[in-house]
Structures are given as C-alpha cells and as structure tokens.
Amino acid sequence: MKKIQLNLNKQLRRYNLYFLAVVSLLMLLSSSCKKKLEVQNPNDPTFGVNVNSESGIAAYAKGGIYWNGLNYGDGWLGDSYFSLPWGYHELMGDAIGGGQGSNNQTTTMGVPDKFVADPANPGTTTFTNPSPQALGIIRSFNTSAATSNGNNALYYEWVNMYAMINACNQTLEVLGSIPLSADKANTVKAWCYWWKGFAYAQIGTIYYAGLIVDQSSIIVSKFEKQSDIIAESNKNLNLASTTLNAISNPGDYSVMISELIPQQCQVGLGLPLSSTQWIHTINTMLARNILLNHLAPFVNGNTAATINKASIPAMSTADWQQVISLCNNGVKQGDYVFTGRTSASYSFFHPNWGSVASMLAASNQTTTYKLGERLVQQFKPGDARRANFTTANGTFFGDANTNSTRYSLLDGVTAGLTGIPILGTRQVGKLEIYIGPTYEENQLMLAEANIRTGTIPAALTLIDQVRAYQGAGVPALSGSPLTTSQALNELTMERLAALAFRGLSYYDIRRWGWTYSIANGGGRYGCTLLFGGNVYTNATIDYNYMDYWDVPADEIDKNTPSDDSAPVKNTNW
Fold first, then answer.
1. Residue 160: closest CA among 286, 43, 65, 225
2. DSSP letter at 544?
3. Rounded to an integer, what distance in angstroms lies between the CA atom of residue 500 and that of residue 502?
4. Nearest of 59, 61, 88, 62 to residue 74 by alpha carbon
5. pTM of the model
C-alpha cells in the first residue's frame, strides 16, 4: 500500500492539497457501503479488517498517525516526516548543512543572506548570497509547478500534518459505532486529541496561517492566523488531558494504549506511557507552544535585545510564569514518551534515510546532509557527548556558504558508544526518535524561564541535571556566580546540544532573534565557520530567514481563501 501511495503522490498534486491529505485516508477505504478498510499498520501495511471491533479501531487509529501522518507524501529526500520536514528545521537551525547537488532545496534553505567569516578582515572573508532564502527560494519556488519538481520546501510539512488531522477526525467519527468500554473509547479519544494538538502545533509554529478542520473529508477555505492555529493546538491538547483524567479503569487504558503504539516503538522510553505520564507530556507540549511562538531575544550576549519585523510577540512575565507552571508538572525523568523506531520490514521510516540523524550517520563525503560546525561548537571541550563526532573522514568543502565541515556523525551503535545518547545510527531499531517532548526539553524550558524571571541558581541546577542525565561529564554550573547573560549562554548551548536532531533547532534560534536580519536587531555572532579553506571561530552570520512560512501554493491555488481569511503570505517579507 505504501508503494501505491508514493506512486500516486505526483499524480494527485494537481488536486487541492487538503484534498490530497484527505485522499491519504480515503485510500484506506475499500468500500464505503461494506464499511471495510485497508488499514495502514506500521507492522503490516497490508492488514485489512472491518473497523467494527477493538482491534480494527486500534489499527485504524495507529495507521492514521504513523503512516498517514508521519510517512505519507515523503517519498522524496528520505521517506518520512523525520527526514525532509525535520531536515528543513535542522538546516535553518544551522545544526546541519545541505550537500552539493542535493534536491528539495536542501542546499539552499539553510544558506544565510550574508556572513563575515572574520569581522576583522571583512573585505576578504565576506559571502553574500545571490539568492536570499525568503524571496529567492521560499517565494520563488512556492508554486505548484515547483512542488511537482520537488523544489517547494513549504509543501511537505503541510501534507503530513493535515493527513494526520484528517486521520484523527475520521477515527473520532467512527469511534461511536465501535463496541468499546468507556475507558477504552476515552483512550482512543485522547489519542486523537493529542495527535491533533501535535499536528496543529507543527502547522502553527512554521506557517503564517493555517486551516482548522473539525470534520473529515471536507474542504475548509477560511484560513486562520498563526496564533489561532496554536490556540487550536492548545484546545486539543487540553481535551486530551481532560479525557485522560476521566479514565477510571487503568487496565482498560493499558490494553488500549499498548494497541495504539507500534510494537517496534515499545522499547526504551517508548514503552506505553501511563495516563499520568501522558498528561506530563501534554503539559510540556503546552509549554513548548508558548515558548516557540514568542520571542525571547538574546543576541550577541544582549539579554535586552529587540527584534523588528517579527511575526510573533515577545515573551511576557506572565508567559514565563505559565511555562514554569506547566513544566513543573511536565515530563519527569524516567517518564515514557512518544518515540519512533525502525523495524526490519514495513517500518514507517527507513533505518538508513528515514531521519535526519540516520542520514548523517556516515562519512561527510557521502551524506546528503552535513554535520554542522555550529552544532559541534555547542559541546564544550571535554564533553563526553562529543564522542558522537569524528574528523577521521576529512573535511567536506561545500559551496561558498556554511555547509563546509570537518565533522561526520558516527554510527553510534557500530562505534560502540555507551554512557551518552547515540545521536545517529543506521542499525535497525537502535535509534530512538523523540516525536514529542522529553525530560531534557522540559527541564531546559524550566531553566530558561527561571533565568528570565531572576532565579539563576535554580536554572543552573536544571542545566546540570540535563548534562548529567546525558553523561556529558562537564564541570557543574551550580554555585557559579553567573550573570544573566552568562547563564543564557549556557542555556542556549545546552538546548542546541541536548536537543539536537529533534526538529527544534530552527525554532530556538528564531525565538532568540538570531535568524532575523542584523538590520532588524538579529544575527548570530561568535560562530565557527569554514571559508576559503580556513577555520574561523568568530564569524558573524546574517541569516534573514522568513520567520513563518507562507501557506503552500498547492493549497491556495486550488482552495481559494475565503474573504474573511487571514493573510496567507507573511506580511513582514
């Protein structure tokens, strides 16, 4: 069935994009009058069953997320949501670079407008991009024709997330006809609300506008502004939490959650989470929605930096307090969370090219993505986690931009790394992809909020906890008399290091102001960069990236925005 989807993908692009997302679920229907489904199951994609039983609805709900949400339409670079859509996040977060000659704009989406490798000698070390990202790439290639040729970066995340939303809507609509106990039904409901909340969060955190769709297989033409999409995410996350709190039979819950999570993912931290642990995840996700969609500028050591021409407001004291409140009841150390793992066959992503981390886990001379110098510099000298990186493969010299690198990412399993997180591997089932929030993310959000509200000692302890949890082995910060600027420097380094390849890098450097034009108060300073065969350690980068993407042309060309729609193009660019 997966091959059929990928083959049909190009043909279906001529239709409305939301219709395309709907098709991903309608393809599961073998006959509406017989009420039969060909359900995409991560463990058996040819699994067919009448959806009139517990096993049927579980398979339907599971396939709708892991195949239709995290795999459908991703047969380009890699084969899942974790390879190309997340790849753009890591490219723009400057954690990775794009290789020469690679497709899907991966060579261009992460190229800044300008950099000065050595500010003391700008005349000979300055690079200016002839095709700036915002107008030269995003706007120029946001067309249906460019999508057909695999050149529209805005297309893929939209397809994945609206396929997931539609899957959840269909599951909720079918659920009432299934003979289930109240608590098993509530578990499925919470599942749908959680994943709808997740999907709307991804849409609202990257696109300038989106659609709120409450029913399956319909066309909605009113586009809502970005903040309303995040509000819809929060609404669904809170519905999931309320529904979980109503469950009184833990046995029924345990049976159903075990059926909903693919077997290959039920390893390590991906074991079926308790309802309490799930609520912890929801709280951390609610905090993430606040943090990633507000500015908290910290530019060139300036804790009071301001950014002009931004699409989102700055964090307020009330926002920081809300983050603290949510994270205090967020993901705890040892909590099970939502993860993805590969399997030997019928996996919803491939061990070799299904994720950014696996694609990187080889020599920089051969990989499509390149391990970024700016990522490696976030790990302090002596940090045990640096064992994930090697210079043994030599230097990759890319185009005159920022993708040249001395480093490759080791296959951590093959290399026998222990005591630290393995950042990349191509071994089946050995790489744990965190789909939602984690303990480290929760603690670092709490740390940042504490710094910003004047409780630096508590924040330093939290950063130490994360470094200890990941086996970094660096000297503790606790007790150090750090200034706010120094504490934030430690925080930004640790977020970029500890949360590498989790799809968050771009959002972090955006909210800190680094991706905005230097002319508007942004920019990134003190960067390690290879240019002209030389290594520089104090480079200045002027990214000037579009902070929130326009709605994909595939949608607006076929689904004309209603008169009361919000703007579908970012008015700041």
1. 65
2. -
3. 6
4. 88
5. 0.93
The two structure tokens encoding residue 291 = 């943090």
User: For residues 184 and 496, what is the distance between their CA atoms, to the nearest angstrom?
Assistant: 39
Cα distances from 355 to residues 15, 118, 348, 426, 435, in angstroms, run: 28, 34, 11, 10, 11
CA 196 centroid distance within chain? 15
- Residue of 291, 358, 300, 302 whose CA lies nearest to 326: 291
Q: How far lies 74's CA from each of 19, 277, 346, in Å?
A: 17, 31, 15
d(CA 341, CA 319): 34
Q: Is the dihedral of CA 92, 94, 95, 97 positive or negative?
A: positive
| Measured distance CA(60)–CA(48) in Å, rounded | 10
Task: Report the C-alpha gap between 373 and 527 in whole angstroms.
Answer: 8
Q: Which CATH architecture has domain 1-68+141-260?
A: Alpha Horseshoe (1.25)
Instruction: Centre a 10 Å sphere on the Cβ of residue 30 and count the other Cβ atoms it contains.
Output: 11
DSSP summary character for residue 113:
S
Is 219 within 8 Å of 18 (Cβ atoms)? Answer: yes
Structure token pair of residue 267: 């390893």
pLDDT tens digits, the chain, 573 residues: what are they?
232 232 223 333 333 443 333 333 333 332 222 222 333 433 333 323 458 899 999 999 999 999 999 997 777 789 999 999 999 999 999 999 998 766 799 999 999 999 999 999 999 999 999 999 999 999 999 999 999 999 999 999 999 999 999 999 999 999 999 999 999 999 999 999 999 999 999 999 999 999 999 999 899 999 999 999 999 999 999 999 999 999 999 999 999 999 999 999 999 999 999 999 999 999 999 999 999 999 999 999 999 999 999 999 999 999 999 999 999 999 999 999 999 999 999 899 999 999 999 999 999 999 999 999 999 999 999 999 999 999 999 999 987 778 999 999 999 999 999 999 999 999 999 999 999 999 999 999 999 999 999 999 999 999 999 999 999 999 999 999 999 999 999 999 999 999 999 999 999 999 999 999 999 999 999 999 999 999 999 999 999 999 999 999 999 999 999 999 999 999 999
| Separation between Cα atoms, residue 163 and residue 71, nearest integer Å | 10
Spatial neighbors of 454 by CB under 8 A, at least 6 apart, are none
Are the C-beta atoms of residues 531 and 400 closer than 8 Å to each other?
yes
> What is the Cα–Cα distance from 518 to 516, expressed in whole angstroms?
6
Token pair in block for residue 503:
């799809």
Residue with tokens 């789909």: 435
460: amino acid identity, one letter: L
Domain boundaries, the chain: 1-68+141-260
Question: Which residues are registered as beta bridge partners of 409?
Answer: 389
The two tokens of residue 181 are 């106990």
Assign residue 284 a region (left: φ > 0; alpha: ψ between -120 and 50; beta: otherwise): alpha
